[in-house]
From TrEMBL:
Keywords: Acyltransferase, Transferase
Family listed: Belongs to the acetyltransferase family. RimJ subfamily.
Top-level taxonomy: Bacteria, Bacillati, Actinomycetota, Actinomycetes, Micrococcales
Name of the protein this chain belongs to: GNAT family acetyltransferase
Keyword Acyltransferase assigned: yes
Organism for this UniProt entry: Brachybacterium muris UCD-AY4
Keyword Transferase among UniProt keywords: yes
Highest taxon listed in the record's lineage: Bacteria
Pfam families: Acetyltransf_3
């Protein structure tokens, strides 16, 4: 199993790809438009509060981590439009071979199954292409939308971490969900989690 970068993952109108320089205006507009929507779930720095680096800095950091194989940061693109992000980070090797997954989508895309499909594509890639053994997702108990995502993905609940991550200005409790490679029936296409998701939750075929 080998980590390659850049990487692009696809499922019909959904494309996951690295952020590009030309995405700057669209990305900054997307974050501004969703500021209130994302505020309760955005991680913050306990010393410096809510500080977001400029787009060029963010892209430089994520590109460096991606090349080193410690992160898999991908933009969510739907019907050709930037619609969010899904990131596996940190990615650990050695005796763990694990990754922590995070995701967010534009409020206008919520409820269309975009987040679970994006997460499923990345999990399948982590297992089938990068040789990961375990993928973990942490979710605030109040985040009902994200809880629906992990439920649809079939992630196993593992309990509560008290005041685990600094989010929205304070230390917050997080529920832990996980999946190991042995729990997924991956076929020759490498799409075990995505196939299971689409079988149990057929995609919304309404026009966007």
């Amino acid at each position: 199993m080998v980590h390659t970068w850049p990487v692009t993952l696809r499922d019909r109108e959904l494309v996951l790809r690295p952020l590009q320089r030309r995405d700057r205006s669209a990305f900054e507009a997307l974050r501004r438009r969703n500021e209130d929507w994302l505020r309760p779930w955005d991680a913050t720095d306990p010393e410096h509060g809510r500080v977001r680096p400029p787009f060029a800095t963010l892209r430089r950091w994520t590109e460096k981590q991606a090349r080193e194989g410690t992160s898999l940061p991908l933009a969510i693109v739907v019907d050709g439009r930037l619609g969010g992000q899904v990131t596996a980070s940190p990615i650990l090797y050695g005796p763990q071979h694990s990754a922590v997954l995070g995701y967010w989508v534009d409020q206008h895309l919520a409820g269309r199954g975009i987040a679970p499909r994006a997460a499923a594509l990345v999990i399948d890639h982590l297992f089938a292409e990068m040789g990961m053994h375990r993928v973990e997702v942490t979710v605030r108990p109040e985040n009902t939308a994200s809880l629906r995502v992990v439920q649809k993905l079939g992630l196993r609940p593992e309990g509560l971490r008290r005041r685990a991550i600094h989010v929205d200005g304070d230390w917050r409790d997080h529920l832990v969900f996980a999946l190991t490679a042995e729990e997924v029936m991956t076929d020759h296409t490498g799409r075990g989690v995505l196939d299971r998701l689409l079988t149990q939750n057929p995609p919304d075929t309404r026009p966007a």
